[in-house]
Design goal:
This protein has a single domain, classed as Helix Hairpins. The protein has eight helices and no strands. It has helices at about 10-25, 40-55, 60-80, 85-105, 115-135, 140-170, 185-195, 205-235. The longest helix is centred in the middle third of the chain and has 28 residues, at about 140-170. The radius of gyration is 28 Å and the shape is globular. It starts with 11 loop residues before the first helix and ends in a 29-residue tail after the last helix.
Length: about 260
């Protein structure tokens, strides 16, 4: 006869299955949680990329953007969890295309619409991968918020590249009142539009630029009001150890000694 409560199954297969469930991903003490995207480094790279273009007007710093945008896409691809062989295909496509674009820009062909469209494409793919991974996470962590903020910055940089491409594809000035049009002003106009600050010092002169600006403003509002606000409201910090819920024993306030000795 087998020991234990009635109905208990002690077969080796049953024990092995129970052990596998307890020690599997996300269960038990010996199991490790499923891998998730980590976006802290990506957020720092994005902030550095923006500040590099904003405070440095050197041509090399501007041309390095295509390399930095390729790095941003590869970092987003690393945490995207796409099925094989898509990560390899997209990574090879990104490296080859960015190398060709960077080489042509260094040889005097800088500021072309193709270069700006390539930058916008890189950032669009990066934003899609980051948002897709953030929404797929079962729980909201600090990395989810980092990922949402990274996607927000990527969207602003992407629209800045779109404005530059429109300027190179048209014969008229992009900004009204003969305002200067360069990488710094494109990014400034893009982020003031994305955040709907509306300073009014830079405005699009033609209908195409105005239409893209309206689309960016709507994207920024929807992004903040839905994704970022939802993640922040659902975020919970690290769990603190809970105090025992059972009844607590009353302490002996009379000090040591038996109560009979004091009678």
């Amino acid at each position: 006869m087998s020991a234990g409560p009635p109905g208990a199954d002690h077969t080796p297969g049953h024990d092995a299955g129970t052990l596998a469930r307890l020690t599997g991903p996300g269960h038990g003490r010996t199991g490790s949680p499923p891998g998730g995207g980590r976006y802290g480094l990506l957020l720092l790279v994005l902030i550095g990329t923006y500040l590099l273009a904003a405070f440095s007007g050197a041509r090399l710093a501007i041309e390095l953007q295509v390399v930095l945008f390729a790095v941003i896409l590869l970092m987003a691809l690393r945490t995207s969890l796409l099925p094989a062989p898509w990560p390899v295909i997209i990574g090879a496509f990104t490296v080859v295309g960015s190398a060709v674009t960077f080489w042509t820009s260094l040889n005097g062909r800088n500021g072309t619409a193709a270069e700006d469209l390539w930058k916008a494409l890189l950032l669009l793919m990066a934003a899609v991968m980051v948002v897709r991974r953030v929404l797929a996470k079962p729980t909201v962590t600090i990395q989810s918020i980092y990922g949402a903020l990274s996607a927000y910055l990527i969207i602003g940089l992407m629209f800045a590249s779109c404005y530059a491409a429109i300027d190179h594809l048209t014969t008229s000035d992009f900004f009204a009142d003969n305002q200067p049009a360069d990488t710094q002003t494109y990014q400034y106009f893009s982020f003031t539009t994305l955040t709907t600050l509306g300073y009014g010092d830079f405005t699009a002169a033609e209908n195409g630029g105005r239409a893209i600006a309206v689309l960016e403003a709507m994207t920024g509002q929807v992004f903040l009001a839905t994704l970022v606000a939802r993640l922040v409201s659902a975020y919970r910090g690290p769990d603190r150890p809970q105090e025992p819920s059972g009844p607590r024993l009353l302490e002996d306030v009379d000090g040591p000694g038996d109560d009979e000795d004091r009678d």
